[in-house]
Each structure stands twice: as structure tokens, then as C-alpha cells.
Amino acid sequence: MGIRAHHIRITTFIHATEDEDKVLEAIGTFIPEGIDDEDIIFDVDETTGFFGNPIKVVNVEIKRSRAVRKFLDYFKELLREDDRRYVIENLDEKVDEEGTLYVRFNKQKAYLGEAEVDEGGDTIQVRIKVKAFPMRKDAVVKAIREWLEE
Asked: What pLDDT is recorded for position 37?
């Protein structure tokens, strides 16, 4: 049956030592091919890291409902079996009170076109703002669990 979502946000950092094009390519692993460019809001901000080093923050947002649906189908296919189980088992920590699902992926693997869930620091974070009625964390957790288990 699936879930519905208000929007998707994909975020990562580009460190000064990293090749920006490569990082953008890695993010591309999480964007389904069928989504039109105008359905993707893409933003790179320059900021400063903890030690004063320059860092860029990449934010990708998908808002239009058709594009969001495409993303959700794609995201579910992208998850490997063991990662899907891991996310299901840890949904309580991965869903906040606002009903957003947070999943982080290994950035190095994403360069290779692979989606591997990773709790490390240097990751690509996918946030899915889920629609649920009533809008309560437990309702969202239940909806996501059913969606990922089907």
C-alpha cells in the first residue's frame, strides 16, 4: 500500500578535501531517474566547519507529490534486505516526534551507486516527512513498518 510523504530532504557535506562533482554524483544515487529537474530543489551553502575549515552543505528537496511518490518507490527498492530489516528494527530511533524518518547512508558507497545504511559521521542523510493520521510518532512508525515489510 505504501506511505505518503509531504517532502523528502537529502543532505550531505562536501569537505574541502573532497571533489564536489563526486559528492553530487553520490547524492544522485538517491534520486530516481524519472523525476523532472524542476521537481528537485537543489541548494549548496558554504559554511565553516568546527575547526574553521570551509565546508559546503548540499540540500536536495523533493516536494511535488508525484515526484515524492516516485522517490518513495525508488527508496524502498534501493534498500538492501539487511538494511531494510535494520531500519525496521530501529524505527523508534529513526522517526522523530514530527513524523520524519531519518536514514543515513555511506557516502563512499554512494559514489559507486550503492545505498548502504551507515551510522557514521560522513554520510548522506535522507529525511522523509511522512503523512499520517493521526499525526503521532507511533502512527508514523506503524505506517513505515508496514510499508517496508510488504
From this structure: 87
> What share of the chain in percent tops pLDDT 90?
84
- C-alpha dihedral sign at 88, 93, 94, 95: positive
SS3 (DSSP) at 136 = coil
Strand pairing category for 4-15 and 123-131: antiparallel
72 touches 32 (CB < 8 A)? no
In 3-state terms, what secondary structure has residue 149?
helix
Q: Which of 107-117 are b and which e, b meaning 16 or more Cβ less than 10 Å from the residue's Cβ?
A: bebbbeeebbb
C-beta separation of 27 from 62 below 8 A: no
Domain of residue 76 covers 4-149
Residue among 127, 133, 130 nearest 147 (CA):
130
Q: Quote the pTM value.
A: 0.94
How many CB atoms lie under 10 A from the CB of residue 2?
12
Which residues, given as ranges, of the chain have pLDDT below 50? none
The total number of structural domains in the chain stands at 1
**Tens of pLDDT along 51-91?**
888 999 999 999 999 999 999 999 999 999 999 999 999 99
